[in-house]
Design a protein that fits this description.
This protein has 15 helices and 15 strands. It is α/β, with parallel strands linked by helices. It has two domains: 137 residues, NAD(P)-binding Rossmann-like Domain (Rossmann fold, 3-Layer(aba) Sandwich), CATH 3.40.50.720; 294 residues, Dihydrodipicolinate Reductase, domain 2, CATH 3.30.360. The N terminus is likely disordered.
Amino acid sequence: MVAKVVPVDSFDLVVFGATGDLSRRKLIPALYRRMADGQIPDTARIIGAARSDMDVQAFRNMAAEALDRFVPPEELDQSIRDRFLSCIDYLALDVTKEAGWADLRSLLSDDGRPCAYYLSVAPRFFGVIADGIRKAGLVNDMTRIVVEKPLGRDLASAQELNNQLSQCFSEQKIYRIDHYLGKETVQNLMALRFANALFEPLWNARYIDHVQITAAEKVGIEGRGPYYDNVGAMRDMVQNHLLQLLCLTAMEPPSHFAPDAVRDEKLKVLRALEPLTDPADIVRGQYRKDSIGGSYLEEAENPDSRTESFVALKAGISNWRWSGVPFYLRTGKRLRSRVSEIAIRFKDIPHSIFSGPQTATKPNILAIRLQPDEGITLSMTVKDPGQGGMRLTDTDLDMSFAESLTHSGARLPDAYERLVMDVIRGDQTLFMRGDEVEAAWAWIDPIIQANSSIRPVQYDSGSSGPEDALMLLHRDGRRWREISA
């Protein structure tokens, strides 16, 4: 059965930094696909705003090139493509100057439709643009503002950013986007936990041995060396993506599925994180040179860099549900495969009634795969079919979303497709609240400060990371799940 399409009413979407990489790679293709799926009406308007001196037709040509490059040919329909491009407008605007804001105001509709401002720009412009929108008289009950990470580089800068935004927009109008939260599997984690009687009774320290959260990438930092060297894996991935996944895994059931109810429970998890004070509970690494590319130090253009391209850590949560259950987080670049997953490892059975060399049981593992193939698998021990006697084997109960959608005739939407339309609909459930961001930084800051002067260990490109990361689990009698595609 094909999912029911729920269109939205007309809206205006202003994309600041519309000529940049994010706009071309993600936003323009996502908006085209939403129109192709019947969710965007022809009367909607997408207004690009950037410093580039071009006219509307030149910007439409750029958008057309982005569609041709980033949308597979089989998904491109010429008539829909033409309709989509006709919705696009453009305004050359230097956000640091007063001139141009009145022109933006004249472009926007005055029929009371929603208007979203998407800030696809460097963070130093967030406050400038928010203030420019306010001064131009463009803030009302139907406006929203969307900001991308990084949302600060520490607690103090995150607080400053929140203050800048709050002077122009109420918290209910601020959408801090994390594309990991728009993935189908992340949302299915909540459905899995809170819509089924099977798992929730087991979702606690009595039955779960530990949790692994992995976000591994095959690529290095090529092309972003000097920028990335000022950020590192801790700020780039752990503070936002991995901690958000941890929160969704560990949070208590919200009273109802509503934005603030969900975010209240995530905030409780962040505030319950135990301080990470043992140096043995964190591993930082940098990849070595190999036949594919240079070392981290070469690509970062900093031979004395202390910035990590890999981090693994052991976190604990001080509450009744999770006391004593370690959460192992790892992320890194130039690793063996591109894999993102949450793995829930259940405890061993208390007693096995089976005996013999081929009757050993293995623990159940619930693996929630975010990429590359979104889906959920549950490892089970069953009888080996067709064998004499009681011989046991492992098998997976596998739910691949791609296969399910192939049978239904539907398509798995990109995270940006879902999140941009949630902004238009005014749904903040999958967006971070300001106090969440600050709580995450409050936990991360001491870890960064304690380790920033320590030289990271080296690891081989194409591996699973540093040997020290393996020991992080080995000393607890556990093992990382293999990183494989």
